[in-house]
Each structure stands twice: as C-alpha cells, then as structure tokens.
Amino acid sequence: LSQARAGIISTVEVLKVMEAFVNEPNYTVWSDLSCNLGILSTLLSHTDFYEEIQVFVKDVFSPIGERLGWDPKPGEGHLDALLRGLVLGKLGKAGHKATLEEARRRFKDHVEGKHILSADLRSPVYVTILKHGDSTTLDTMLKLHKQADMQEEKNRIERVLGAISQPELIQKVLTFALSEEVRPQDTVSVIGGVAGGSKQGRKAAWKFLRDNWEELYNRYQGGFLISRLIKV
C-alpha cells in the first residue's frame, strides 16, 4: 500500500495481494487489512469506484465472517472476539445483506430488552444499523446514549454516531457533539466519527469546525484535544 500511495506500483496490485488473505485467521493481519481498505475507501469515495470497493470489501471479508459467525465458540480467545467485531463491522458498513439483516434483528432485541448485545458486538451492530438507518434509528441511538449508566457505553455510541448517512441527520449529530449530553473531552470523538463516516460527513464536519472554531478553540486551547480535532 505504501508503494501504491507513493505511485511506484498500481493500486490494483495491492488489491490482488489483499485477495490472497481470505483464509487468514489472525486478528492483527485483518486489522491491518481493514485499516488499509479504509484508506482506499476514503480516497475512492470521491470517484465512481466507491460502490465497487464496497463489493470488494464484502468479497474479501465474507469468508472469514461466515467462519466466525455471530456467537462465540468454545475455546475462543480474546483476539477471536476482537476479530469477530472487526469483520462484522466491516461487512455491515459495506452493506453485506445477511450481516445487515442480522444486525437489525439483534439491535431490535437489544433495544426491547429481549437479548442484550455483548460488549464485543455493540460497536459493529451500532455502526451497521446507523450506516443504513434513518431518523428513527438515530433517535433510538441517542435514547440509548441518554439511558446508558456507564461512560464506556456512552463513548461507544458517541464514536459511531457519525456513521449515519443523511445530510440533515449528520447535522443533528454535529449539534449533539456540542450539547451538554456530551462531555467536553468527548466532543472530538463525535466530530471525528462524522469526519470518518462518509464523504458527506467529512464536508459537514469541516464546515462545522470552521463555523464553531471560536467555541472549540476556547474550549481546548493549549491542549492535545485541539490538535487531535484538527487531525481528524
């Protein structure tokens, strides 16, 4: 990927190498693949190839997703749980039909209190239903945020809210970032999630940063959070 980014080889060569990892069992390798595909997806979101790279993601991640399934197996280690969350989140965001349907089913059961999602599955499920959700989905997530007893759960929700796709809902998430519902130190995570969520999100987050620069700068002046905010 570094060679492709430097213009030494074609990105096609990178994708061919990625295809060779479909039977890879190791979380660390998949994490790297996921990160690199994320970089390519971001670049291609400004081109006609964005939908095609999503199909590629589904093709590469589907076999490992089917092997892992949704539920832990006896004898699994911590890395297997991390891998399951990574793979399901990647497939869900890319619009993998079976993953999306299962995520919606499990989210409904979670919200209704029938079957509470395990901590490992919450982020991938939340990301999936938000990415392909509507205003009702966002309202439900904000309600879960308000009801959450633990700060860990609030932070988990804050990080994924930016996955929502519709422009008016992106604005709602950005407004929420500066509300009293979000701790000042966590505002950056919400804005960063929007910036990383989609092409529309990046544009909206950049405009939001400029429009609210004075308030944000005064809030974080001299601290590492202002540099983190600029970076995202």
UniProtKB/TrEMBL annotation:
Residue span(s) of domain ERAP1-like C-terminal: 3-231
Protein keywords: Aminopeptidase, Hydrolase, Protease
Residues annotated as signal peptide: none
Keyword Protease found: yes
Protein origin, superkingdom: Eukaryota
BP terms from Gene Ontology: peptide catabolic process; proteolysis
GO cellular component labels: cytoplasm; extracellular space; membrane
Keyword Transmembrane helix (UniProt): no
UniProt-listed InterPro entries: ERAP1-like_C_dom, Peptidase_M1_aminopeptidases
Protein name as annotated: PSA aminopeptidase
Gene name, Swiss-Prot/TrEMBL: Npepps
